[in-house]
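quick one, 213 residues, struct below
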Amino acid sequence: MCAFTLRLLDSIFRMGEHRATAAFANREETKLKMKRMNLAKYFAAAAALAAVFTFVTILPAPAQETSSPSQKQLNIAAMRAERKAVVGANMPLTKDDAKVFWPLYDEYEARMDKIEERHIKEVREYVASYETLTDADATKKLDQVVSIQEARLDVQKAYIPKFRAVLSSIKTTRFFQVDGKIRALVQCQIAQMVPLAKAPQSSAQEGQGDNNL
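---
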């Protein structure tokens, strides 16, 4: 009888352990799903931020709706704050991490923003003249694009060791992944709105005439 009771108790404990394990697994799965939902939510916000950034910085506003410089600066400052919020929401920082991360982040973003200002200037100039590009203009445009890409990469190469000096390698990698996703969203929005290069109409017509000969 005693042996039977012990076996019964052992079975009950095993059932309880199994249920506890299953409950833990379900809880972890739920947490993972919630985490994925949060990431999707924040990157959806980043995508919206990218679209707004493109409209505010790249596309010229209609004459009657032109914002004052101060208003435009406020809009850009608000978008930078939103970008920082997206980064913060996706970086698991301790209090000690945060003390060293955010000043370095601000320094890094200031460097990258200067490059983005170059990019905005290049895109605006191109959009204003893409229908009348000469070969020299096209060469200059492509060289500028490559130079801007190299400048971004140079800043990242310079700051990766700085972030690794104050954060773990995993957190450093995570930051540059988050940063890369945000920048990719912005670049995607810009790419959708920038027209392809066109040959001048006269050259195109001459080419068509030659083909008809």
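Confidence is low (pLDDT under 50) at residues 30-35, 61-66.
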